[in-house]
Amino acid sequence: MALDATMRTRTETDSLGSMEIPADAYWGIHTARALENFAISKRPISVYKDLVNGLAMVKQAAARANKEIGVLSEEKADLIDRAAQLVIDGEYHDQFIVGVIQGGAGTSTNMNANEVITNIALELAGREKGDYDFLSPIDHTNRSQSTNDVYPTAIKVGLGLDLLSLLDELDLLRQAFLAKAVEFHDVLKVGRTQLQDAVPMTLGQEFHGFATTLGYDHQRLTENAYLLYEINLGATAIGTGITANRDYSPAVVRHLREISGLDLALAGDLVESTSDTGSFMSFSASLKRNAIKLSKICNDLRLLSSGPQAGLGEINLPPRQAGSSIMPGKVNPVIPEVVNQIAFAVAGADLTVTMAVEGGQLQLNAFEPVIAHSIFQSITWMRRGMNTLRINCVDGITANRERLGAMVGSSVGVITALTPFIGYAAAAALAKTALLTGRSVADLVIEAGLMSADEVAKQLSPARLSGLEAITTAIPIVGADEPVGEQVAERVDAAHPSGA
Fold first, then answer.
1. β-strands 17-22, 196-202 pairing
2. How far apart are CA 360 and CA 368, in angstroms?
3. Which residue among 67, 362, 475, 487 is least enclosed by CB atoms within 10 Å?
4. How would you label 72-108 residue by residue, b for 16+ Cβ within 10 Å and e otherwise?
5. Which listed CATH number (1.20.200.10, 3.30.750.44, 3.30.2130.10, 2.40.160.30) goes with 149-233+261-402?
6. Residues of the chain with CATH 1.20.200.10
7. What phi and psi, each to the nearest 5 degrees, are found at residue 276?
8. Per-residue pLDDT tens digits for 262-302
9. CATH number of the domain at 9-143, out of 2.40.10.10, 2.60.40.10, 1.10.275.10, 3.20.20.60?
10. Residue limits of CATH 1.10.275.10 in the chain
11. What EC number(s) does the entry state (predicted)?
12. What backbone phi and psi angles, to 5 degrees, belong to 299?
């Protein structure tokens, strides 16, 4: 790391030698080496504030537990506790500068946290940064710990905290779709299967379906979050607990549960828990599920709003920006498009997590940094994507009611609602005639004498067509002893002898 010749520095030493550290930096030599070695992503861990908060919470819980069991003096433990709280409160995050992608299974991240919290504590004690003889990043702030239990626990705590804000945004988006479902409850439209006209429904039902699927995803994400709440604090290097007092694990987990507000529990097998990263894979998969389903909803919004003249044109998305540098007046569905792209990135991140989980070896998975980066990025982008989709798109969607009404009126799909009363064969014959002539199904049914105008109107009412009012009894129009197909064909031919 190159330093300005005029910059004030302090000298720090590790097992590899000495380095000059900026005098005002709260980080130290271990962080400095990471800056030289891992100039990869150019993204510091501070971009994920809940990861930094998770690290600080672990250090605070460790200080309290070490004081409780008598392996750290009250003075030192309280200084570390106070320093960690300042980080939790949002201060000093700019000092967490190591790259999110790094070798060493997260050791650089753990040491960055140890150094920053230690130097904050030294200042609180009225001492100079780097006075590690009084308070050491390793002997005191990292007491009873190893990167191999601190780092995965901090990731899990950070993800648990980050998920809370994602779930809040997801529920707000669900409610936005529900509000549109209420607004569009009486707007009939043609449903589609395989992109072909199917049967009528309401636009409200369609938007209610969007809301319901987001509600299911809220449940799945919440369920999978509990897989993250099993932690391995006290496992130290490989799960055997070497260098940690036997009373440390239950104490530190209890304190961390109180600090974080998360329902954390100590793993039953610390060796297994230290080497296993399956919970990250399951959680990542649930994020992917939510992202892909949200992307499908955005695909539907883009289709429904396509046009405005040569597409479906059933709904209008709020115009957010000019859509072309060459075609005047063109407006693109930019908000659903950006959410689509977020989903693509989340799917790719999930594959990265999967491969990183598979790549673990023996008593430790060295690839937790890329796992953490992938999942935190997915949560961050999804939360922001949901926010812009809700505010800049869903809240402002309007329905093209006249166009939808005309489409339903001319759709042969409404004949399906009459099949319980005139039979499938009759319905098929009339549907063919309607397509050939362009006439309405209702008029053809009435002219063929199969149903009265009042009976047709009743069965083709919005409530019946959308299934909101159940059909319980068929109207006896066709005689039970009469061949349905022949009868309808005769009536249709009689009404339209030219076949036109």
1. unpaired
2. 9
3. 362
4. beeebbbbbbbbbbbbbeeebbebbbbbbbbebbbbb
5. 1.20.200.10
6. 149-233+261-402
7. -95, 135
8. 999 999 999 999 999 999 999 999 999 999 999 999 999 99
9. 1.10.275.10
10. 9-143
11. 4.3.1.1
12. -60, -45
Spatial distance between the Cα atoms of 1 and 30, rounded to a whole number of angstroms = 12
What is the average pLDDT across 96-111?
95
User: Which single residue is written with the structure tokens 């098929």?
Assistant: 428
Compare 418 and 316 and report the one with higher pLDDT: 316
pLDDT digits (tens, 9 = 90+) for 138-175: 999 999 999 999 999 999 999 999 999 999 999 999 99
Average pLDDT, whole number, for the chain?
90
To the query of whether residue 324 is one of the catalytic residues in this protein, the response is: yes
Distance separating alpha carbons of residues 321 and 336, to the nearest angstrom: 13
CA–CA–CA angle 173, 175, 177 (5° rounding): 75
Q: Directed axis angle between helix 368-392 and helix 147-183, to 10°? A: 20
